[in-house]
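Q: For a teaching session next week I want to show students how multiple molecules come together into a single three-dimensional assembly. I've collected the sequence lines for a complex. Could you give me the predicted structure tokens for the whole thing so I can convert them for display?
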Amino acid sequence: MGDFFKRHRILVLAVVLLVGSLLLYSYNLRHKGATTFFERSVISLSAPLQKAVDVFTEEVGLLWTNYLWLVDARQQNRRLLEKNRELQGELVALSEVRLENQRLRRLLDFVDTIERPALPARIVAEDVSSWARTIVIDKGDESGLREGMPVVVAEGVVGRVIKTASYSARVLLITDASSAVAALIQRTRTRGVARGLGGNLSLDYASREDDLQVGDLLVTSGMGGVFPKGLVIGKVVLAEQGKFGLFQQVEIEPSTDFSHLEEVLVLLDEETGQ
Amino acid sequence: MKRLSVYLLIGLFFMLLQTTVLPRLLPSSLLPNLLLILVLYLALSESFTRAILLALLFGLLQDCFSSTTLGLYGVVNLVIFFQVRLLVTRLSAESPALLLLLVAGGTLVQTFLVGFFLTLFAEAGSVLQVLLPALPGQLLVNLLAGTILLGLLLVLQPQFGARSGMAGLPHQSRYHGS
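A: Of course. Below is the structure for the complete assembly, covering every listed component.
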């Protein structure tokens, strides 16, 4: 027996690892809602690094756009450019502050319109896979975040928290293929399920007898218990009633611009404020 | 142990690059999968035990850094690793184009396996509708990243002299095939 393991050491290792991984995957599939110790540790350890790299990249980006591309102009008129550079830097910084102010003000105005307590958070990283749509925010367990909490901005729904660590959390965007949100068309009250398609969303189970039109607003229906009722998801860009079948094909353009998200609001539990 | 730490650091660096720096420069559908390239390189050039453990670890890390269930990329990486080890005995491992060929094949196999597991086991909705249209772009961008990394490796490896070579380079690694 010992000889067998010695002679087939590599094969045994390969089989053990493969079967072990499959069992791990299978176990985690059945306990999807929970964040494992391994995931929690990796997220906790990597979040500060991600934040640091994010800030560094932003600074390098600002340095590049504010200074390096002005080298030609500097050769033409050194003194004027130096002055111009300083002013440019200040202007960009001021503009950045003004834009941030505007965004936060809009978020604050939006907070007044919703009944649940909300916690602002900053986006620090995106998903490592090119096909999945998730983001990492800089608030976690310590701030009262839990799996399943809805994430929104003033423009509409962003997604929901799927993993949490002490000081960071992962948010599944509504455009992800595995996301499904109970929704209804505001004008006709047609119910359906908004599923992610990567960029846009589809509205499944919309009755073909309802008269849906391009431009109709899609909002959360409040069913399913994750999102409060009435949050904007997007608007109809395509509604096709086929000749057969019970449902029509509806495509939704999300109201949130996911490529320019910087700050979001996490809606906390109503009773506890956590 | 030293080499293991270096690979871990490279993996972590690639992960940070993919989650924080590259999303600022490229659209999400055109992000290269640097970890896949690293796993393929390890499968080609490292000892079996070290490479398989790193492939599994990088898969689990990739799961943590994405929305997938823990274990998915672990299994996928192991399957890709075994395929490379079986395949490479039948190919000319000294050809520089081998790594690029494996990057193309690895991308296809990874997309297929992820789609297969998610569709069959995870009820991930219309994930194939997202995976398949993105495949040509992903293939191109992975090949481009593989070419750049191979070029960097050819320049950097003689500088540090830690290895005599790798599969895909003029000198075959003495660890290959063990």
